[in-house]
From TrEMBL:
Protein name (Swiss-Prot/TrEMBL): Mutator-like transposase domain-containing protein
Top-rank taxon: Eukaryota
InterPro entries found in the cross-reference section: Mutator_transp_dom
Residues of the Mutator-like transposase domain: 1-110
Length: 131
């Protein structure tokens, strides 16, 4: 239903209001964005997806907790990935994103260039989708 409404809104914007929407602010649900892209509302202009930082922050925390659980990074003893450390990392990344908007290269430099670890791969995906 949400995606149908988005497609209708985007496809009639030029005819009805003589304007083009060039960016879509998303709450993390990309089905509406995908539907708009597939409908190709503007032949000569691409639509860009913007993610809400709060939703990116939430996804980072969820991904960290899932990673800790599935990869057994929780472990025991010093260095384990605990709930408290997940919260701390999640908040650090949110702050780093906010402090460095719109300079994506600064964000990447802050977090390092090695995106081979699962945690940094998650971060890389989030940085690529936050504007």
């Amino acid at each position: 239903m949400e995606q149908d409404s988005a497609v209708i809104l985007w496809n009639r914007s030029v005819a009805k209001y003589n304007l083009r929407y060039v960016e879509m602010l998303s709450d993390g649900d990309s089905s509406a964005f995908k539907a708009v892209l597939e409908s190709k509302p503007y032949a000569d202009k691409a639509v860009t997806k913007l993610d809400c930082i709060n939703h990116a922050h939430k996804r980072m925390g969820t991904a960290l907790r899932k990673l800790a659980k599935e990869s057994h990074l929780g472990g025991r003893g010093v260095g384990r990935l605990t709930e408290k450390k997940c919260d701390s990392l999640q908040n650090f990344y949110r702050g780093a994103i906010i402090d460095n908007i719109p300079d994506v290269s600064k964000m990447r430099n802050l977090f390092g260039q090695d995106y081979t670890t699962p945690c940094l791969q998650i971060l890389n995906t989030i940085i690529d989708n936050v504007h």
